[in-house]
């Protein structure tokens, strides 16, 4: 009986261990699959729409358009790179508004040579200034794709492609596979192409509607973890009621004197700065940052500046420590419970974001065009700043326990590292009654001295 019990106990232990291991593995897969989810922009994505506009003798002509439906995340220079794998033996005869990076082996063709014969072509946008006979609408922006909220007029990018060896009806055409989108590095994961209802187009005079012969969509979502393993920005804090300046946590984005990457930062006083900045890097996107304790390319500083009877005021400063990167069309997303009472923004553009109905605690800030929408590389001009004026909500407002500081900050869609909450500048440990009593005592003593002096 004892042996049976011990055997049963052993089986239960093994089963429990197996169950725990199974739950752990499932949780790992779960976290991996939801890594691209953004709580502040739950429906944000880049949608690639492939519209077949006409048939050719051996294929079709299509217009491919990328729509950036993300509220605050955009693609900046050097721009997007789009790739896929053909389902059959398709070739690209011609392109307008974009080009492939490689032609591939087209030796089997006589006479007319295709633009690209690769099984897995890679496409990039054309640059501004491209001749008009090579352009179509929404092309030729150097791959820059702005966010939907910040600049909806430039939140789409298009090109035209003439495909051969592809079939000439919607029953013989096969959708491409394995779509990839780089912006310009990794970060986006694209789902499979799905055939949808053909897109409809309204003429300029709105009196005629035409439609594509066949349409399929591809949805790509962003993951900061896939884009870069280390953070790209951090937040520092200060206030008028405390002399403490809370810097970004040490080694937030890396550490100095890293043996694996020597020379990863530059002392601004060093005479090697000019040569280091101009020297070619392994990647054009590899940051070369100013040597700091946090080693981040971007720092956002939140300073609680003034306290009025019915309002309070904050100064926000964004500093660029990267010597290789200018940030055009930058933006900042801030989460704070008092943003529903934001009264005035002095030199930034502002739009409230409401990811969930009835919750207005998130705001998007960006620069004023031709004034401070360009964040220059590290140096004297490498910062932008503004001030925010909040109206106090008496039921919730307080300076205690770090309430005046943001809960979360994003820069260009990347979540910035906040200091630990226990390091926030807190109110001095002095009672208002004690301060009032001391002030009254001081005034009483001063009045007595003035009386004695005047009597003498």
TrEMBL record:
| Range of residues in the leader sequence | 1-36
Keywords for the protein's UniProt record, in alphabetical order? Glycoprotein, GPI-anchor, Lipoprotein, Membrane, Signal, Transmembrane, Transmembrane helix
Q: Coiled-coil region(s) at which residues?
A: none
The way this protein sits in the membrane is described as:
Lipid-anchor; GPI-anchor
Residues passing through the membrane, by range: 434-453
* InterPro entries the UniProt entry points to: COB_C, COBRA_pln
**Biological process per Gene Ontology, one example term:** plant-type cell wall cellulose biosynthetic process
Q: Name one GO cellular component term.
A: side of membrane
Which residues does the UniProt record annotate as the domain COBRA C-terminal?
232-425
Compartments where located: Cell membrane
**Primary location recorded for the protein, binned into one broad class:** membrane
Asked if the Swiss-Prot or TrEMBL record annotates the protein with the keyword Nucleotide-binding, the reply is no
Family named by the database record: Belongs to the COBRA family.
Q: What is this protein called?
A: COBRA-like protein
| Species per Swiss-Prot/TrEMBL record | Rhamnella rubrinervis
Organism ancestry: Eukaryota, Viridiplantae, Streptophyta, Embryophyta, Tracheophyta
């Amino acid at each position: 009986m004892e042996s049976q019990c011990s055997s049963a106990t052993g089986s239960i232990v093994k089963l429990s261990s197996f169950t725990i291991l199974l739950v752990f593995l499932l949780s790992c897969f779960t976290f991996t699959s939801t890594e691209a989810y953004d709580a502040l922009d739950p429906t944000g994505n880049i949608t690639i729409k492939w519209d077949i506009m006409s048939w050719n003798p051996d294929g079709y002509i299509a217009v491919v358009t990328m729509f950036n439906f993300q509220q605050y995340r955009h693609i900046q220079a050097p721009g997007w790179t789009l790739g896929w794998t053909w389902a059959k033996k398709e070739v690209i005869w011609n392109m307008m508004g974009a080009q492939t990076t490689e032609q591939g082996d087209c030796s089997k063709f006589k006479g007319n040579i295709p633009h690209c014969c690769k099984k897995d072509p890679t496409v990039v946008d054309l640059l501004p200034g491209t001749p008009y006979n090579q352009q179509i609408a929404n092309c030729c922006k150097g791959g820059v794709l702005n966010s939907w909220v910040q600049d909806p007029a430039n939140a789409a990018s298009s090109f035209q492609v003439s495909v051969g060896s592809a079939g000439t009806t919607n029953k013989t055409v096969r959708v491409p596979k394995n779509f990839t989108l780089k912006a310009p590095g990794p970060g986006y994961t694209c789902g499979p192409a799905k055939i949808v209802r053909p897109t409809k187009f309204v003429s300029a005079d709105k009196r005629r509607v035409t439609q594509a012969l066949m349409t399929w969509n591809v949805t790509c979502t962003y993951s900061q973890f896939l884009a870069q393993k280390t953070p790209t920005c951090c937040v520092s804090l200060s206030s008028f009621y405390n002399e403490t300046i809370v810097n970004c946590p040490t080694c937030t984005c890396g550490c100095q004197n890293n043996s694996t990457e020597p020379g990863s930062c530059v002392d601004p006083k060093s005479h090697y700065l000019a040569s280091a900045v101009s020297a070619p890097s392994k990647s054009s996107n590899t940051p070369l940052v100013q040597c700091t304790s946090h080693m981040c390319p971007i720092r956002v500083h939140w300073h609680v500046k003034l306290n009025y009877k019915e309002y309070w005021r904050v100064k926000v400063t964004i500093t660029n420590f990267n010597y290789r990167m200018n940030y055009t069309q930058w933006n900042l997303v801030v989460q704070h419970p008092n943003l529903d009472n934001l009264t005035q923004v002095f030199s930034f553009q502002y739009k409230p974001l409401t990811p969930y109905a009835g919750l207005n605690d998130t705001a998007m800030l960006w620069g004023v065009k031709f004034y401070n929408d360009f964040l220059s590389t590290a140096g004297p001009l490498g910062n932008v700043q503004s001030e925010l004026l909040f109206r106090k909500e008496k039921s919730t407002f307080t300076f205690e326990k770090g309430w005046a500081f943001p809960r979360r900050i994003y820069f260009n869609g990347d979540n910035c590292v906040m200091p630990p909450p226990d390091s926030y500048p807190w109110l001095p440990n002095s009672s208002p009654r004690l301060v009032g009593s001391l002030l009254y005592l001081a005034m009483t003593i001063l009045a007595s001295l003035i009386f004695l002096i005047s009597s003498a």
